[in-house]
């Protein structure tokens, strides 16, 4: 075998603060590449897919053949798409790009065409149980260097609301981590009418406090019907949002036509999407403004680059998914892609815990509201096996919603 043939491929599952699945590929010459395969609340499904079905196919393949390997893994299984399959393919793809860039002796973004900007604008997650606490959270994020802020808040009459970090967490951390370490998923409540009444008043208070210049974002997290989403988008127009995210479940891409007809608030969609087919109508008809997919869940750098190139034809920009359920490996991959593409929009960024940073050593930096992947060859991430061994997998589930009458609702 040549020196760039794949010698080993190992699936690493650890839980330094939360669960991560990492793929490590090593060539015959000992060059190592890492890929993120984390699927929040369903991590072991991807670990099994990789271990039992993908790893045996990789041994002996030339690590340089990224495109051929991607097509082989996507087409040869017959059963295509879906989050488990695409997260597994993404892990392989990113690991191979890591190897190729290390062999080239340059940071990955150089192989993707070089830097298109000096830094990557990032937004942080501010939240509060009431408006005063929210305003304090925004001030804290500004003090930490963020220059763009996502705004989430509790809603009167609802016990638990997605995105509100001040609510109880099994990890004991302030920054919002919805996956709870428990044998069964937590049940939360929801009332759309109460939410629609409350949120415009929140953004009015934020704009009154921080003025018109601060970029503000909000995540509806799929919980509205198209007409409800249209109403919220219109009600928020006076507050000039950078975007309204996941305003309605977008599996039915045609539903976004109704939202678009009624509001000029920019729309971001796609963190649960896995392939370009999920975006086909949305991009072609310009029904969204930002692509929200993660490198980790969308088939890797190879696949997401294609989606963003397609989006660029319609002046649609990137907004790559980047909460803490994307490992530092997945975050680094996103940053290299962010730096290289022309139609970059903004990057989501939640800082990982100190425990996570002990397992994943990274070269990327954050200063004055901007991220940079660093200048080390490859992704710029190393995996500490000794540190990881101290944090074994623990079962964790995302919550689910019920309405007041007990009906299961989109969370």
Automatic annotation (TrEMBL):
Residues 131-266 form the Mandelate racemase/muconate lactonizing enzyme C-terminal domain. InterPro entries: D-mannonate_dehydratase-like (IPR034589), DgoD-like (IPR034593), Enolase-like_C_sf (IPR036849), Enolase-like_N (IPR029017), Enolase_C-like (IPR029065), Mandel_Rmase/mucon_lact_enz_CS (IPR018110), Mandelate_racemase_C (IPR013342), Mandelate_racemase_N_dom (IPR013341). Transmembrane segments: none annotated. This is D-galactonate dehydratase family protein. It comes from Cellulomonas avistercoris.
